[in-house]
What does this fold into?
Amino acid sequence: MDATRNQTALQYSGSNDLWDNGNLYNVTPHNPTGNMSLVFDPVTDKIVSGLTIIILCTTMVSLGCTMEVAKIKAYVVKPKGVAIALVAQFGIMPLTAFTLTKIFQVGPMEAVTILICGCCPGGNLSNLVALALEGDMNLSIVMTTFSTIMALGIMPLLLFLYCKGIPNMLYNVPYFGIVIALIMSILPCLIGIAINHWVPRYSPVVKKVGLSLLLIAAVVIGIIAGIIVGDTIWVVISPKMIAMASLMPLIGFLLGYIMSCVFRVKERCRRTIAVETGCQNIQLCSTILKVTFPPEGIGALFLFPVVYIFFQGLESLLLIIIFRCYKRFKPAAEEKPPYLVVEGKVQEVKAP
It folds into this structure.
């Protein structure tokens, strides 16, 4: 992975519009000096990168432990719901991300950061939200599995196509490193599926240990980033970046639901597809940004997924509250009395 990052740094150095003597210029309109300094020293950078990989791997193993081979096979035989959800996931979100970067006119690296976030497959948050919205859990889990596997080919392709519209970035994105990061996410997921299939009694233990490691690593990264990043954090929490982070999940939820309505799927599946469309795998996004891009290039932007997941979680919670209120206050449907045909005549069956 270090070789990939070094190669990426050399690729960047060939673009005079972005780099000069190791410094990044014209990255963002919020930085009038045009210089984004190195965020971490080499040792700390490797520590943060290692913790980011740990977070991704533990998350994907835990996610795999929620999947059942029989349910995956069932949706392979009848793939209509999964196919609609995949089109929504990899059609709506990348286009939304690219459109927002053009509307808000952000710099090249900011645009690529947003685009990578939009091209990521679904994450495990979508499974929790789908459960709270009483969606189709089988579809949710299978959709997360399929989108993660298919991202291995679709995500680099989408990035290549959309980066044609971002100045100086078409050949400066580390596509090979992104593929490696995707493989790093798929293998732990397959390990989790194998554990749940062959030794299911260990699945609850794996999920609990994974959650503990996830929380510890996330706290450590947060502390290190908070101490070292300093003023460069304003690149991440600028008004434009916050606006895009808040709009992307909302647009994904809305368009995903509309698309599922067009194809006339069941109501439970509509809610599931909407959630799967709007929820991205933020752990994967963080890993790609932190591990595959050179530190001088990505700077504090690798923390953007933290901002994104805040709004993703907040808007998911809002959807859950709206759904619960709707269920509670909607008028109860009138129950029609059952009828029975007796000797050719229809008679009402009275309740005892």
